[in-house]
Amino acid sequence: MSRSLIRDAAIATTAVLTAALTACSGSGSAKAEAGASAAAKTEISVNLQGKQAKAGEPVKVTLAQGKLAQVAVTDSKGAKLAGRVAADGRSWTSDRPAAPGTGYAIEAKDETGGTAKAGFTTAGADKVNKLTLAPGKNSTVGIAQPLSIVFDHPVKNRAAVEKQLKVTTSANTVGSWGWMQDYNSGKDRVDWRPKEYWKAGTKVTLHADLNGIDSGPGGGWFVKDYTTGFTVGKSQIVKVDLDNHRLKLMRDGREVRDIPMSAGTPGGEKASWRGKLVVMAKEGTINMRSETVGLGDAYDKMVDDSMRLTWSGMYAHAAPWNGDYFGKANKSSGCIGMSDSDAGWVYGQVQVGDPFEITGDDAKGTQALNNGYGEWNLSWDTWQSKSALR
């Protein structure tokens, strides 16, 4: 072969290689960035589309050909929806649903390095549900304090809501949610209590990942997540013996102090409740009026060192006017009364969330589940049955 023919063949071979490299490294079309026209385009489809897409459903991204390597779904506030690629590599599904009134941008990459983009906006919520959490964030509470959530509007989709309520503890505490109607507000409420009283020092966190969850008919949508946490303080129990008219503060299983008291007059509506009641709040000096608890105009007075035990108006507090009966008889209008000095001492010692374990025959019955925190009066099996996931 002549030198000129060899030179021409080398030039032709170089052109072929150059063309091949160009085809592999080209920038592609505006519709797909995977390659030039000779390569397969990266194309995706999304189950939610347009500006009025349906909220409350997971986002599903499907690749037309090949396998997905990565999918990013970012909302209008910059938060990303977590999700996972299916085993066959053809689709990706978000772990959580799309929230109402939110724009989402989608970028998918396939295994060849090609990319495709899409976007949609969900329809806004016609009604929004909110909630109130107890105890307060970063608080320190007693060993009987439950997590308690009261909702602004009805919750018909209880199982869907409960699945999004994640409780974590530093002591791997076993517990369960239970649903009820709140005594005070009449609204839907769900509490989480441990199987047994909390261990002192336990740190508790709740993640209520509710954004995008539908409450159900009449309830509206949740449009945000909630987080709270608290620490369990000293291990102490207040034991009240109605029949012997005594109150004892126990700490770490040992008696700290034994106090004479007078509880509710037995035999009628003025009698006290028995059971495991929980200190709901330390309210200090408050005005107590008998008509607010259905007892006519029997009293209207300022009362010191008031510790609320029920929504229906049972307290432990100072009751110096009842001093003749301390340690001798139950002669109050339903509350646990003590001297000024004893009540002040108890008030300074107890924590919100401490249990008052009240026993004796001189009672009008056991505290109801929703009249304060009455869940400790139920067996563990009965309490678990109140979960929407049982």
Structure description:
The chain has 390 residues and is mainly β. It folds into three domains: 78 residues, Immunoglobulin-like; 103 residues, Immunoglobulin-like (Sandwich); 142 residues, L,D-transpeptidase catalytic domain-like (Beta Barrel). 11% of the residues lie in helices and 37% in strands. The chain contains four helices and 25 strands. The strands form six sheets. Strands 18-17-16-24-19-25 form a six-stranded mixed sheet, with no helix packed on it. Strands 1-2-5-4 form a four-stranded antiparallel sheet, with no helix packed on it. It has a four-stranded antiparallel sheet with strand order 8-10-13-12, with no helix packed on it. A hairpin with a 4-residue loop joins strand 6 and strand 7. The longest helix has 23 residues. It starts with a helix and ends in a 6-residue tail after the last helix. The relative contact order is 0.12. The N terminus is likely disordered.
